[in-house]
């Protein structure tokens, strides 16, 4: 496994693609489950590896090796597992799926159908990846948060800022005949191996691949247009998850997750999201996305906003002082520069942020890549040499980031009192680990 989550829960996951064409939302959904994790799930796909290598300007001859290496990596999750608290064998989910539309109002049906017990509602985090990212390369922190009881919906942006993504042509929905193949299912209705291989290949060939759009980092109009598009995607994903919570119909066109046999994956979220505990977070360009979404979304949608190494350049300056939800600036020691910090401080001066609503914390011994999975791909010494990590071991850095985020959320949800040690960490009173301030260097050209 790439990463073992630190929480008490096992983690389930699946991919969600709500529409064919460019207008839908693509995401990976993580959530706590009671299902045991055995073999996990493949970490990524060759096309995503190639896209990431192109974004990093690494030699093309490395493609074959890295595609092979990535194929050996596994996510520590139970793929297509039931959400925690579901009845054995998902009976209540299948019941909800099979009931007629007027079943709830029919007295006879109420007498015949078993009563569904009230399920625990879970907090939810919407996560946005950074420039050149994809839904795979922040798996560790998403898995970790889910293992502590959160539903984590990680959006894959399709605005040209990701290293790779895809969409399905709209013609796919018109020609869909109901056949669906789960590439890693242990059982399938398709018994003929040749036919199974054909269906898998057919689904893969339907994808139209999107790659990173090369552009000057400092072009504000271009980057601002992207961050607004990204924020709209994050809000759209939030709305999609809330539709599932309300029991409204949502389609999943994701190859390997199509068909009525997978509908229960979506139906099981009915009445399972705590709508008073929805949070948004992101890393780098994703943090700029989270900030923009938190400000432009309907008031009250998000309860907190966690910004990991935020890249402020794409954010509209007119929005700097309009934030009204508690904000966490969680920083790595070796990333920020003076102009970026000055812009972040303007957000902290927002009239909508009263005393205690903002937290600034910098983790020692970390660089910008510490928030992603990149430092986990190789041994610590090799990751350091490649610049994928700094002095702090990657797993420690990720778990610390996850813990700080959870503590920040817990403080502002007010559902429990933080311990003295937890308050010390969140307040930056652990000088060996972190400090309550930005760290910056003079301005210079950089990547994010």
TrEMBL record:
Gene Ontology MF term list: 1-alkyl-2-acetylglycerophosphocholine esterase activity
Entry EC number(s): 3.1.1.47
Ranges for region Disordered: 98-120
Class of enzymatic activity (EC top level): hydrolase
Active-site positions on this chain: 284, 309, 368
Keywords attached to this entry: Hydrolase, Lipid degradation, Lipid metabolism
Any single GO BP term: lipid catabolic process
Stored InterPro entries: AB_hydrolase_fold, PAF_acetylhydro_eukaryote
Record's protein name: 1-alkyl-2-acetylglycerophosphocholine esterase
Lineage: Eukaryota, Metazoa, Spiralia, Lophotrochozoa, Platyhelminthes
């Amino acid at each position: 496994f790439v990463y073992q989550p630190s929480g008490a829960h096992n983690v389930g996951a699946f991919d969600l693609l709500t529409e064919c064409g460019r207008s839908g939302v693509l995401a990976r959904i993580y959530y706590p489950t009671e299902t045991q994790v055995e073999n996990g799930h493949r970490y990524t796909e060759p096309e995503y590896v190639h896209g990431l290598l192109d974004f990093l300007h690494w030699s093309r001859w490395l493609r074959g090796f890295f595609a092979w290496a990535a194929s050996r990596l596994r996510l520590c999750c139970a793929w297509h597992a039931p959400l925690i608290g579901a009845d054995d064998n998902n009976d209540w989910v299948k019941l909800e799926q099979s009931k007629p539309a007027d079943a709830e109002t029919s007295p006879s049906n109420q007498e015949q159908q078993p009563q569904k017990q009230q399920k625990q509602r879970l907090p939810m985090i919407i996560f946005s990846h950074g420039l050149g990212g994809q839904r795979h390369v922040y798996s560790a922190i998403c898995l970790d948060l889910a293992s502590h009881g959160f539903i984590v919906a990680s959006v894959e942006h399709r605005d040209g800022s990701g290293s790779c993504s895809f969409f399905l042509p709209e013609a796919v929905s018109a020609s869909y005949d109901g056949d669906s193949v789960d590439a890693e299912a242990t059982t399938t209705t398709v018994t003929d191996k040749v036919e199974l291989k054909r269906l898998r290949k057919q689904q893969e060939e339907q994808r139209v691949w999107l790659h990173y759009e090369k552009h000057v980092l400092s072009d504000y109009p271009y980057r601002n247009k992207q961050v607004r598009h990204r924020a709209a995607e994050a809000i759209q994903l939030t709305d999609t998850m809330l539709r599932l919570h309300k029991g409204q119909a949502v389609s999943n066109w994701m190859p390997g997750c199509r068909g009525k046999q997978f509908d229960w994956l979506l139906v099981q979220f009915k009445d399972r999201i705590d709508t008073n505990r929805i949070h948004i977070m992101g890393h780098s360009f994703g943090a700029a996305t989270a900030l923009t979404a938190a400000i432009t979304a309907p008031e009250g949608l998000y309860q907190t906003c966690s910004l990991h190494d935020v890249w402020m350049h794409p954010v509209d300056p007119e929005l700097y002082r309009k934030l009204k939800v508690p904000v966490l600036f969680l920083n790595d020691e070796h990333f920020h520069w003076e102009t970026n910090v000055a812009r972040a401080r303007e957000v902290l001066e927002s009239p909508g942020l009263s005393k205690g609503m903002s937290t600034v914390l910098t983790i020692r011994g970390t660089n910008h890549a510490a928030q992603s999975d990149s430092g986990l791909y190789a041994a610590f010494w090799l990751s350091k040499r490649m610049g994928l990590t700094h002095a702090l071991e990657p797993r420690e850095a990720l778990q610390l980031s996850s813990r700080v985020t959870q503590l920040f959320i817990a403080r502002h949800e007010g559902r429990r009192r933080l311990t003295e040690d937890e308050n010390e960490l969140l307040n930056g009173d652990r000088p060996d680990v972190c400090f309550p301030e930005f760290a910056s260097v003079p301005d210079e050209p950089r990547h994010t």
